[in-house]
Amino acid sequence: MNRPLPIIATSLAWLLAAFFLFGAYGNIFISEENAAAYVAWGYPDWFHYITAILELAAGLLLIRAGSRPYGAGLGAMVMAAASLTTLLNADYGHTVAPSIVLLVSLVALGLSLAVRRAAD
Predict the structure, then answer these.
(1) How many Å apart are CA 10 and CA 1, to the nearest integer?
(2) What is the tens place of the pLDDT at every residue in 76-106?
(3) Within 13 Å and on the Cβ side, how many CA atoms surround 41?
(4) What is the pLDDT of residue 98?
(5) H/E element holding 83?
(6) Rounded distance, CA 90 to CA 85, Å?
(7) Is 110 in contact with 70 (CB distance < 8 Å)?
(8) Which residues cross the membrane (predicted)?
(9) Beta strands per DSSP E along the chain
């Protein structure tokens, strides 16, 4: 197996895990500004807890190699929803970050699957 590939995949997954775990914390203890953004986007006032649970799950799944593809896939779905939400609400200032994390999540998913195939 190409040795740098698992190192890159693991490093990227751990960075994503940190992002999602930090995001989960931010959605559990939400700021007034972010709570107002959820309301402006049309979500109920409790929806940030759903986002927090999904981000927490993605972050935890990304930590272990065996569950990494699931974490990357879940993270990609969360970020796709965030990107779509901001685009549909013409909140373009908040579109860039979730779009970048969506792309990174998809790369992490591809890398984790490639590492898994190479190990088999």
Answers:
(1) 15
(2) 999 999 999 999 999 999 999 999 999 999 9
(3) 25
(4) 97
(5) helix 68-88
(6) 9
(7) no
(8) 46-63, 70-90, 96-115
(9) none
